[in-house]
């Protein structure tokens, strides 16, 4: 999730050109896409036309595209929307700074069953892989040294949760005031509630003398890219498709030998991971100080630890001129 973003993401399974669509109410407002693009559905309140935008564009313009119902010609009531179009969420995140959007790890959820032609496929960002797993391992490895910010939410506190531990539980009004006052690095909605990570929560971690770990979508880095925070930005990217296939085979082998299978990725997932990592790199590469290839989690983790040790011992380091003085 990220600022103002809906939680429904789809991979398109057909090409769409509004210029060629006689039914569209306003061609200029149409959103052109190619099969395989990832779209964020900004609004699906209208049965026939959705508002969507291309995921990952720096200034993505929302446009109109046909709804699933409109493409298939099948009429669904809201309750009858296929499961694949249930609102889903992207996982990953610093305590889930998700957003960010988020990108390299879109995961196929399910192809809807009932309709004749494939239209859209809901995709999400899987948890427990890649970046958030690295963050988790770092935290466990040295909890006195690393910390994560406590996010804010407007949802009800659950049994056993404590204020300021899992979340800061605040009213909607307080949350919205914080949005207006630009207190959040990012925020999003989930099941009718707001979630977000504030700049103050990062300050709190650093004030405790800890290294604050955050996994953010690249479009939010600018919020932290200041002399105050001096972030070290590391881009964790997937390995080659060959290595991904190999690790899937390895995982299957171990799963049958020892444990239950966990997550299995399909070929399309790998293509999505690599495609979106490339898009991210080309748009935001100038902000990344280091690229870490996450082929195998143990080696990636060891490399990350070594890199952080080097950073903390090697002084001084190069910084942007505007942070100096
Ligand atoms: P839960 O209510 O079950 O604790 O969390 C619901 C969802 O909110 C999870 O997907 C979680 O990752 C997400 N979430 C938690 N903290 C944040 C945050 O700081 N920002 C955003 N955008 N999402 C968050």
UniProtKB/TrEMBL annotation:
<keyword id="KW-0728">SH3 domain</keyword>
<feature type="domain" description="SH3">
    <location>
        <begin position="5"/>
        <end position="75"/>
    </location>
</feature>
<feature type="domain" description="Guanylate kinase-like">
    <location>
        <begin position="118"/>
        <end position="309"/>
    </location>
</feature>
<protein>
    <submittedName>
        <fullName>MAGUK p55 scaffold protein 7b</fullName>
    </submittedName>
</protein>
<comment type="similarity">
    <text>Belongs to the MAGUK family.</text>
</comment>
